[in-house]
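User: Hi! I have a protein structure encoded as tokens and I'd like to know what sequence might fold into it. I'm fairly new to this, so please keep things simple.
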């Protein structure tokens, strides 16, 4: 896995491509945890745990519901973090609500919101970006 840590002061940034497999969420969690450990002075432990869960949910949703390529960008500064998960499917969340109601799950974005993150979706190239912003 190619991992880029750009620690140019503020914000600290993680930018990684993710595999098109169920390993994507695991790799994203590990990379996120490493960045948060390096930046423990600007991100409290309870917030870091929430961020790892947010990353896991967003990456898991991308792999489950969208085509690749996948990528994760995490920007971290004192009091705020931005998580961006990119995928290769232009369909926006909610475009297939009927299909989702018949399938198990469907709680990922609710979990992200319950953790206090604001969510945004933006078309990007041939796909989209799902963005979560968490402040504390």
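Assistant: Happy to help. Inverse folding works backwards from shape to sequence: for each of the 136 positions I chose a residue that suits the local structure. Here it is:
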């Amino acid at each position: 896995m190619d991992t880029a840590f750009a620690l140019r002061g503020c914000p600290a940034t993680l930018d990684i491509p993710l595999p098109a497999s169920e390993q994507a969420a695991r790799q994203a969690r590990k990379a996120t945890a490493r960045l948060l450990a390096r930046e423990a002075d600007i991100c409290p432990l309870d917030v870091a745990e929430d961020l790892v869960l947010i990353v896991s949910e967003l990456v898991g949703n991308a792999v489950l519901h969208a085509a690749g390529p996948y990528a994760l960008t995490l920007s971290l500064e004192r009091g705020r973090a931005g998580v961006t998960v990119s995928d290769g499917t232009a369909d926006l969340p909610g475009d297939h609500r009927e299909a989702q109601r018949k399938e198990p799950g469907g709680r990922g974005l609710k979990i992200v919101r319950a953790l206090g993150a604001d969510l945004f979706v933006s078309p990007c190239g041939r796909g989209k970006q799902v963005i979560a912003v968490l402040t504390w």
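A useful reference point when you look it over: The longest strand covers residues 127-135. Feel free to ask if any position seems puzzling.
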